[in-house]
Each structure stands twice: as structure tokens, then as C-alpha cells.
Amino acid sequence: xxxxxxxxxxxxxxxxxxxxxxxxxxxxxxxxxxxxxxxxxxxxxxxxxxxxxxxxxxxxxxxxxxxxxxxxxxxxxxxxxxxxxxxxxxxxxxxxxxxxxxxxxxxxxxxxxxxxxxxxxxxxxxxxxxxxxxxxxxxxxxxxxxxxxxxxxxxxxxxxxxxxxxxxxxxxxxxxxxxxxxxxxxxxxxxxxxxxxxxxxxxxxxxxxxxxxxxxxxxxxxxxxxxxxxxxxxxxxxxxxxxxxxxxxxxxxxxxxxxxxxxxxxxxxxxxxxxxxxxxxxxxxxxxxxxxxxxxxxxxxxxxxxxxxxxxxxxxxxxxxxxxxxxxxxxxxxxxxxxxxxxxxxxxxxxxxxxxxxxxxxxxxxxxxxxxxxxxxxxxxxxxxxxxxxxxxxxxxxxxxxxxxxxxxxxxxxxxxxxxxxxxxxxxxxxxxxxxxxxxxxxxxxxxxxxxxxxxxxxxxxxxxxxxxxxxxxxxxxxxxxxx
Length: 484
Known about the structure:
Blueprint: H1 7-11, H2 15-25, H3 33-53, H4 57-69, E1 72-77, E2 82-84, H5 86-97, E3 105-106, H6 113-130, H7 138-158, H8 163-166, H9 171-188, H10 192-203, H11 222-238, H12 255-260, E4 287-288, H13 299-311, E5 322-329, H14 331-337, H15 347-351, H16 354-364, H17 374-377, H18 380-386, E6 389-393, E7 403-409, E8 414-419, H19 431-442, H20 448-459, H21 468-475
Parallel strand pairs: 5-6
Antiparallel strand pairs: 1-2, 3-4, 5-7, 7-8
Helix pairs in contact: 2-10, 3-5, 3-7, 3-19, 3-20, 4-5, 5-6, 5-11, 6-7, 6-9, 6-11, 7-9, 9-10, 9-11, 10-11, 13-16, 16-18
Pfam family, one: MmgE_PrpD_N
Domain MmgE/PrpD N-terminal: 18-262
Family: Belongs to the PrpD family.
């Protein structure tokens, strides 16, 4: 065990060992109360997303295949009353959290933290309990989740954050392996040298192709690869298996050197971002919660259209009079969501398209899970607008979230609006709004008593003596979200 750290001493260790020392020594008392409170609401949102996603068609398809290929184990698969080994359980539970584009995202270094951390941590603790370990309490789950919330975005900032999306990487899957490994290492109480091994083992598995967004089921599962592989890495490290040392700063084949290569940035990566402001600047504060059921890059599109609807209700009362919709956006949003959507489209593709999201907002005045029912995705009213929509990259837009929507009508009238950032980014959803989202989106999927119990246990997590009760509450079957 290394001595209690100081910024000067940890700087001498190198960035990987510095991070490992911080992970090892962090306690809840080191974390401001408002940060701990926010973390609990974020965790609640993650569980809510899992409840919504557990029995979506593509989740059930994944579950059926994995139940067939994997033997029973000790770790709960949420919503199925079945148990698997820790790795497939983490993979499936992550697929549920990421199942419907409702989950959290980091606004500076995009990743969906809850889909990586909560499945890995609960699978890790269930696995250890089955081997005779004492119960894990809520304080340990909260602390370990915060470790993951801090680690993943820092890895992303080293690689210029959302720039990874412009290069075609599924950024959260690249950044998330280390987050899972660090969080699981914390909950298992690994010493710094073993945390370093876990990071090295996890980082060598990291990847994720953003082309998965164009209609594939596997888009829903890719963050699960990070959850599973980081858990795998930490369990190997716990058993004494060694990983790549100094994996972040190693110049030949190191994580940052390899993923930064060809970035087009100067410098190609920013190594110091991994540990800059550790314990002072909380990356958790840049985690955003979605009010809309679509990819984060579409949210400013939706909000800009909504402003136009409020300002010009008469003009937008007859959508057939629209001749052109132009959506201008920054590079990352354009490359992620500005692609040309074509019919037919799956729910996955629809949720990733700015043009489709704009059309849904115009027709339905909301973008919620109900709008992505199978029978609604192919509506002529939607596609008539999608086909009139042009998405363009506008470098002159000031902020990366800023978007401008211009609508032209058959009579020659033009209306236009610019929004600097969507609701959920500026302003972020409040804790109360997150709670209302949890209640609203899970209503009818689980009974009120179970929903209230999950809510109570998560928001009072420091006093929860055994987190296995959360697994039990999530294990019971949920009703299907009807997308037929």
C-alpha cells in the first residue's frame, strides 16, 4: 500500500499510477455532499433506464441468445428472474440500460456511464457474495460508481472528447473499459498495483465502431462490452494476473498513443487530462440526463424545433406546406446525427438521426419512447418531412451543442431559430426532474410499491446495508414497453 497521496507525490508516479493511487485512497468523506447527492439521482436514472430497456424486442433477442449459450450462474439478469455468470450478466444488464437512448451521457467526453458501471458493479458484488464474501453496502456502491463517473470522462478528455465521434469511434466504448475496471477495482478493494493491472487488461480490449448506429441491434450492446471487459479485467487482477503497466503513457502501443494516432489534433492526445484536478474538479457534474428518447446529438434539434413551434404555431399547423428544413450543427453532431436517413429505418437508426428527430417533434410535438413503436416509424407524415430535410456542418456555429433550424414554406416564408444548447445540457435536469423522469418512464412497467422501494433505497444509499436487495428488486419481471 502506498502512502497517503499528495498532488506533488502522485505527479512523480506517472499518470496511470497517479490515477490508481487516487482510486485506491478515495473515500466518501473526500467527496462533497452535493456531488454524492447528484450521484444517487444519476444512479436512479440508470436503474430506470434498465427497467424501460429490459424487455424491448432487441433486448429480448439478445437475452434469448445469451441464455442459450451461457450456463446459469450467481448474478441476476434484471427483469428475467434468471442468473448467469458475472460477465454475461453485466453484458445483458448493460444492454438494458443502453436499450432505448434514454440514459445519461457526458457532455465533454461522450459516454453512457451508468450502462457501464451499474451492471459491472452489481455483477462483481453478486459474484463475490456467492463465493462467501460479506454483504456489500450502499456506501461502497456509491463510492465505486463515483470512481467510474470520474475515470471514464477523463480518459475521454485525453483523446479530445467528442472528437472521437468525428473519427468514427463509438467513444463511450473506447473510454468506458477503464471506467468499469476502476470502479470494480474500487468495490473489490484492490491495491494500487492491482488497479493498474486491471486498467492495463481493460484498455487492451477497448474499441467500438460508430457505424453500429445505422440500424444494428449491437449499438444497444456495445457499452456492455466495456462493462463486461472492465469487470473481467478487475477479476483477473484480483487473482494476481498482471496487465499492461503505465498503459496510458506507454509510447509504443499504449492506450493514448494508439487511439490518438491519426487524430488530426496537435498534440494527438492530452495525457495530463487523466489526472488534472482529481478530487477538485468532478466530472460527474458534466454528466447529463436525457429528457428525450433519442441520441444526445439530436436533442438540440428537437429543442430548436420546439421553440419554432411555440413561436409560430399557425405557420406550423399545416406541415404539408413545408418545402425545406435545414439543420445546421457543429462537426461532432453532424457526423453522429446528420447522416441521410433512408426508408425503411429501424428504431436504432431513427433514434440516431437528427432529421428523423426533427420530423417526430414536428408531427408529434414530443420525442418519447412511444414515437418509436414499430408501426409508427414508417409513417408517411414523418418521411415526407425527413425527405425535405438537409443537415449541414456549419463551422461558424459557436458551441458544439449549438444548432440552427430553418424551415421554408411553399408561400416563400422562412422561419429560423438558433439554440445554444438543449435542455439537459443548459440547464441540466435538476434532481427533481430526474426523479420525475424515473417515475414517469417506469410507470406501468413495474408496480408502484417496487418503484417506490427502488427510489427510497437508492436515494438513501449510504444507509443501505446490503445492495443485493437492489438486484432482487430489479430481477422480478417487468411489463413490456409496447413497441409493436
